[in-house]
Design brief:
alpha/beta, six-stranded parallel beta sheet, Dehydroquinate synthase-like, alpha domain, 12% strand, homodimer, globular
């Protein structure tokens, strides 16, 4: 038995937990920069956070200019705003984009970083409170910030132990107005985290236990996801499963699926979770040949016998697939083959293997 | 779904993890006070910690005067020693007693506390590294320090978020020379933590998942515990199960079993884990009447159908029972009824209920 495990975020989970725990915001300081997207204005999360702050006499400034797949320019602007406003802490509200961006902003508020992707950050980072409003990224419990890297034409993860938020609030009510495709794709992202985490060379007993619990819950939510009808219990369960899967990758990292998925997002605009969902079955069909016992354990935790069963479950959720020509897929395989996540996988994936997975997932001739 | 969860300790688990991760000790400072019992000198843990420190050029001073069930006098002496030595951090090595004592020492090194049990501590506490060498207390992942309270003739828990160690090393090899009774009683303590944690009013989805995983592992170790023969895999599994159960009570606290058990330890010298093991079945037989579904879930996680099955499994491990007269048990029931843990239980236990559990567990006339 060999593993490392670290997840220092305090979790507060439950209906109306933000308003009911306003006192937890008080020690963070006088001024908060709220980093968010557009939907937090209608799903109630922003209002809840502002009410909590105002009950403590704390001030806030809202920065809502984070695009999906956050750019370096947008986090630089956020960092500048945090400094100008004198923010002592950051509140991130939203899906993966605002939460990942908030981490970079929390750093840029305190540190200059000329090239953000090669920069070795110190732990002088503004403290953060995260309020996820989608159930997929798990960013509220990870030390990762994934940003668009235009120079390398991909998404690149920057990691810093100081990127762990201090506090995360989990309330499924913020997902009530979430579109069906976002709900489905983010659930695929969570599933991908739990599954890839179990295939990581850093997987251990504790991350496995959390991953299996996440997969068990996601499997139970499959009928709701397929039907597109959700009770508040379903939303809570999806959010909890996503946080569990985040706790997994905080300790294991992700593997080849994420490495390949970044190209589908960067070049074809596939939402991140959809990209993972498209690739997962073909990825596991390769893994099945090379690590059959482990794959059986992983798929079994999600209630599937084989990668074909996984494919059959995800297929109706994905609808019509992207069709990408072979030459492009060759280039994406090459790009993925040098991504650091590839080395993180217990199963070796050559460039040819990656191409095969891409071709079988989104090739224009199958 | 409603819960809070916090467990900020970094875990490093694996054979020889202390020596192999000596670099992790370096940032803590120049001087370490090592708080330990006698057995760490023979089980290799002290030598490993000293080797790690010395490879970093760090100095240490060993304080090994912690009695089982640590006294206030012993932690005061430790606090004085930490100040005199200029300790910047504490390394706790051993079972629950040194680890719990180390937390109070880490506080007393920085704060005066006239009455340690009523004192409201600040978070100015020396940082700690814990190396458990028994598998029961889970202290390496909790914010609790349980000390002998002579004024109230019991053991009293003091709690402080700053009591969470920064780092804990888990290596089952330190248990190779552990006596059979200590191995068994500490496993009973871990089982009690997981089971009581699930009956806590603060139990939630995540603590339940960790508790069930702990109980699953403990159940699988029952044959080894009964036979008294352990492989290194068994020791690793017991230690991991104990840490999981510690992560549970860090978030849920314990319930009536611990409240009653303190008297068996204080007045009759029953080792803490043994006291819990003696009381668990009768405790669950009361709970079975009042919360049957939940008890079925808890016992089921440990592979038992009923509290009788639990009793049958634990009985051979307990050997001859303490026989205590009814008048004394009345007094212990009264004492337990005012213990704060009683309110923490989903099942209400009146003083009469507590007496009934004590009588059925260790009464001289059954």
């Amino acid at each position: 038995m060999k593993f490392g495990y670290y997840m220092p975020v305090k979790l507060v989970c439950g209906r109306d937990c933000v308003r009911e725990n306003a006192a937890l915001f008080a020690p963070f300081g006088k001024n908060a920069l709220i980093v968010t997207g557009k939907s937090s204005k209608t799903n109630g999360a922003l209002a809840d956070a502002e009410a909590a702050l105002s009950s403590n006499g704390q001030s806030s400034c809202v920065y809502d200019k984070i695009p999906p797949n956050p750019t370096v320019a947008s986090v630089r602007e956020g960092g500048r705003l945090a400094r100008e406003f004198g923010a002592e802490f950051i509140i991130a509200i939203g899906g993966g984009s605002p939460m990942d961006a908030a981490k970079a902003i929390a750093m840029l508020a305190r540190q200059e970083a000329e090239d953000i992707f090669s920069y070795a950050p110190s732990d002088d980072v503004l403290p953060m409170i995260h309020i996820p409003t989608t159930a997929g990224t798990g960013s509220e419990v990870t030390p990762y910030s994934i940003l668009t890297n235009d120079e390398k034409q991909t998404k690149t993860s920057i990691s810093n132990p100081a990127f762990f938020p201090k506090l995360a609030f989990l309330d499924g009510k913020y997902m009530r107005s979430l579109p069906q495709d976002t709900t489905v794709y983010t659930a695929m992202d969570a599933m991908s985290h739990a599954m890839e985490g179990m295939l990581s060379v850093r997987a251990g007993a504790l991350s496995d236990a959390l991953a299996k619990e996440s997969l068990r819950i996601l499997r139970a939510e499959l009928p709701a996801l397929t039907e597109g009808k959700y009770s508040d219990d379903d939303r809570d369960a999806l959010l909890y499963a996503s946080t569990l899967a985040g706790m997994v990758i905080a300790n294991t990292g992700t593997c080849a699926v994420h490495s390949m998925g970044y190209s589908l997002t960067y070049f074809h605009g596939a939402p991140h979770g959809r990209a993972n969902g498209l690739l997962l079955p073909a990825f596991f069909s390769v893994c099945e040949e090379r690590a059959p016992a482990r794959v059986k354990e992983i798929l079994g935790a999600a209630g599937f016998e084989t990668s074909e069963e996984l494919a059959a479950a995800l297929s109706p959720l994905l609808g019509e697939r992207e069709k990408i020509d072979g030459e492009k897929l060759r280039a994406y395989a090459e790009k993925a083959s040098v991504n650091k996540n590839i080395k993180n996988c217990r199963v070796h994936f050559s460039e040819e293997d990656l191409f095969r997975v891409l071709k079988n997932s989104v090739g224009d001739r199958q």
